[in-house]
Amino acid sequence: MVFKCQEDSFLKQFKTKIVSSEFATLDWTNSDGQVQTLKGFNVICEDTILFPEGGGQPCDYGTLDGFSVRNVQRKGTTAVHFVESAQSFDAGMEVLLILDFQRRLDHMQQHSGQHLITALFDREFKYDTTSWSLGSSTSYIQLNTPHLISRESLDLIERQANDLIREGREVSVLLVDPEVAQEFQDARAPRGLPKDHEGLARVVRIEGIESNMCCGTHVTNLSQLQCVKLLYAEKVKTNINVHFVVGERVLTKLGEVFHREQQLTQALKGGPAQHLDLLQKLQQNVKSTRKSFQQLLKDFATAEAERLEDLPKKERPKYFCLHRRDGIEVDFINTFLRLAPEEIFYFLTVSEGVSAGSSAKGHMVLRGDPEIVQQLGPQFLDLLEGKGNGKEGSFQGKINNLAKLQDCQELLEAQFKPKKIVEAAAATQPASAS
Question: Closest Cα partner for 103 from 221, 248, 242?
């Protein structure tokens, strides 16, 4: 069946009658990216101006008698509309469909633009388009070639496409019989007809350029595309994806790029022509600063280790904790442990968090008595939400939450609390009644 939307892609309102209405639910992703389950009805009408998803083109949105149509899917020769409504619709009742035309126009521009780009790559380079994707902000075609496409080749196709848009070539839709070879012989059919297809097939023709079998909605003249911009090409396995925008998306993309350019100008304190040089200088400064910072950390680690080493053995602590929250620099721990006295038990962490109660990621190391290390290591990792392992008096792992760092230190303190103090404390407790 050919739907009304396929007969006239610019029809914005349409009266039709209800065929059936059944209760249904739909998982809907809202503008915030959250998925919610909507309740409504799957409604089939005698005809529709809302395009059901197919041919790489997403479905249309709109309203049915004022109720939101959130999804449209083709099922055989019918289009099933999910209508968000608390009430059903009686068979035979007349309803008004209203199309979200801005969404339709965007999809038409991208889809007709894809046909044009595909045809030009085939004409110029003999590259077949094996698939395409209409994304929410950009789209791409997949070309059956392993050779990366240069910027010069992209510019050539882009220039030819925009020349044809300025000429205003006609875009028409013909209905042909797939069984009649004479009618169907010049129509490109990358996907072939669906298994449940019935009746005539639609062929979209761009005047003097190509004919392509397609179920989607299209502009009627290339001038309605406004313009085409080929963004870039990337190699994906043995194919090449060419990313592009058409029509209103070109203006949107230009606005986004210009806004970022203004932000960079303000941040870098220099005009667009200077952005690259200023960014490279900034990267060099960051690299130099980072190198200096790493050296300072090593110097600090050395100083801390030497301070412990200089203490008389009788004054050295049984355990020592040191926590740095100015970056995950494991070299700091390695430098410290290489120079620190062996007989002390060490609990060391480095993290990118600014406070002990943060959930920042980091690294933890225990070193000392093997029995105590193996006892406390897994407990500390559990408290700090980390993963790791240990051997021969050393335990280390990656941690994800410093909120319970104090709990770890209390466990460590309890481990090294003098036994005589514990026994004395127990002796002072009153005897239990017998």
Answer: 248
- The DSSP code sequence of 227-270 is -EEEEEEEEETTEEEEEEEETHHHHHHHHHHHHHHHHHHHHHTS
* Residue pointed to by tokens 């059944």: 22
Q: Of 106, 14, 21, which is closest to residue 4 (Cα–Cα)?
A: 14
Structure-token pair, residue 156: 């050539």
How far are the Cα atoms of 18, 322, 423 from residue 2, in angstroms, in the given order? 18, 73, 90
- Per-residue confidence (pLDDT) for residue 423, from 0 to 100: 41
pLDDT of residue 196: 56
Q: How far apart are CA 434 and CA 427, in angstroms?
A: 17
Taking alpha carbons only, the member of 387, 364, 380 closest to residue 415 is 380
Half-sphere exposure of 323 (CA within 13 A, CB side): 17
Task: Write out the E strands in 100-227.
Answer: 129-134, 139-143, 171-176, 201-206, 210-213
For residue 248, which amino acid is it? E
The Cα–Cα gap between 37 and 39 comes to 7
Q: Residue 372 is inside which H or E element, if any?
A: helix 370-383
Give the Cα separation of 304 and 308 in Å (integer).
7
Nearest in space to 174 (alpha carbons), one of 194, 197, 216, 204: 204
Cα-flanking dihedrals φ and ψ of residue 55, to 5°? 65, 25
Give the bridge partners for 235, in sequence order.
Answer: 240
Longest dimension (CA), the chain: 107
Between 30 and 165, where is the model more confident? 165
pLDDT in tens, 361-393: 899 999 999 999 999 999 999 999 999 998 889
- Three-state DSSP at 165 gives helix
Between vectors from CA 182 to CA 180 and to CA 188, what angle results, nearest 5°?
90
Residue at 388: amino acid letter? G
Within 10 angstroms of residue 89's Cβ, the number of other Cβ atoms is 22
Q: Bridge-partner residues for 93, per DSSP? A: none
